Amino acid sequence: MKSVSSNRELKQRVGMNAADFVQDGMKVGIGTGSTVAFFIEELGRRVKSGLNILGVPTSYAARMLCLEHGIPVQDSMLSDRLDLAVDGADEIDPYLNAIKGGGAAHSCEKIIASMADEFILIADETKLVSSLCRKFPLPVEIIPPALSFAKKQIRLLGGTAELRGAIRKDGPVITENGNFILDILFSDPPENLERLDAELKKIPGLLETGLFLGIAKKALIGFQDKVELLLPKG
Ligand code: 5RP
After folding, report:
1. Confidence of residue 83 (pLDDT cuts 50, 70, 90)
2. Which residue's CA is minimally distant from atom 1 of ligand 1?
3. Rounded to the nearest whole angstrom, what is the distance from the C-alpha of residue 41 to the centroid of ligand 1?
């Protein structure tokens, strides 16, 4: 059957609906990516109609979009608590564990998600998976001197790490923190993600993984025929 809606339309519907979670006076963490872009657009419309909020963006891209749409922003350096944070995802499992970092912003995204009283994932249905790390490569941010040693240590954990290359620039992607991204594929993906996360973080020079485990308590998902609010299984 031909799909009725493109991914873009699903993302748009979800992004716009997510704005309903934002209430007057809130300090809101604002994620990165094409789904969040629709959320920002809708928030901007509401700000123009009188909604009073302060956005705390997770990346330059999110910051620029917020400013373009008239949303007042504060740097995360000056924040230690948020009412709400909303962000996209690359994979979401039934427990609402997620992989993030498709936009290389996951370190800041995790800081902002963790300081929020409530963290909501927004995505189209293609991001739903039964288990993480089987399809989308797991991104980790490393400081450049750690490159070869981190790759070797990741091999010992059963993964193959590839340095993320830049588009329209020779060489690697450089994150907003001046670092590299390794994308990890597992031929036999680990069942215990908490252990994987802990083992990865033991690697010297590895700053943050794209595993968001137990942080989201809600996910707003765009399906072909509806937008549904999912809660973690169990
Ligand atoms: C950026 C992210 C994004 O939220 C994730 O890649 C999803 O992006 P999109 O909404 O464009 O599919 O983690 O680091």
Report:
1. very high
2. 103
3. 16
pLDDT, average across residues 56-68: 98
Tell me the per-residue pLDDT of 150-182, one tens digit each, with 9 for 90 and over.
999 999 999 999 999 999 999 999 999 999 999
Give the per-residue pLDDT at 4.
Answer: 57
Q: Is the pTM of this model over 0.90?
A: yes
My answer on whether 27 and 76 are in the same domain is: yes
Secondary structure, 3-state, the chain: CCCCCCHHHHHHHHHHHHHHHCCCCCEEEECCCHHHHHHHHHHHHHHHCCCCCEEEECCHHHHHHHHHCCCCECCHHHCCCEEEEEECCCEECCCCCEECCCCCCHHHHHHHHHCEEEEEEEEEHHHECCCCCCCCCEEEEECHHHHHHHHHHHHHCCEEEEECECCCCCCECCCCCCCEEEEEEECCCCCCHHHHHHHHHCCCCEEEECEECCCCCEEEEECCCCEEEECCCC
Print the domain residue range for 166.
Answer: 138-208
Ligand 1 nearest-atom number relative to CA 31: 4
Ligand 1 centroid to Cα of residue 109, in Å, is 10
- Is residue 41 part of the annotated active site? The answer reads no
**Overall domain count for the chain:** 2
pLDDT score of 2 more than 90: no
The ligand 1 atom nearest the CA atom of 106: 14
